[in-house]
Amino acid sequence: xxxxxxxxxxxxxxxxxxxxxxxxxxxxxxxxxxxxxxxxxxxxxxxxxxxxxxxxxxxxxxxxxxxxxxxxxxxxxxxxxxxxxxxxxxxxx
Length: 93
Hints:
The chain is α+β, with helices and mostly antiparallel strands and 93 residues long. 24% of the residues lie in helices and 19% in strands. It has helices spanning 47-56, 59-62, 77-84, and strands spanning 23-28, 43-46, 65-69, 74-76. The chain has a four-stranded antiparallel sheet. A hairpin with a 4-residue loop joins strand 3 and strand 4 (74-76). The chain starts with 22 loop residues before the first strand and ends in a 9-residue tail after the last helix. The mean pLDDT is 81.
């Protein structure tokens, strides 16, 4: 279960889970967001897949990208690297 706000009172659930299977997209860190932000995605997949992709990039390239998790927020490359090191991060298929 994701920590998305419910429609009732709009408060996030505090489950402590990262919802690795939530949809996510890889974006250039400087793409400017905006109304057409969804069309600027460089790659799409699950949150775990986007984390794996970022961590496979050369270290000096990672900072050029962010992961936008559907219904949640942006994750920097540094955060993606920390999440990939967690014990509960899912193994690749």
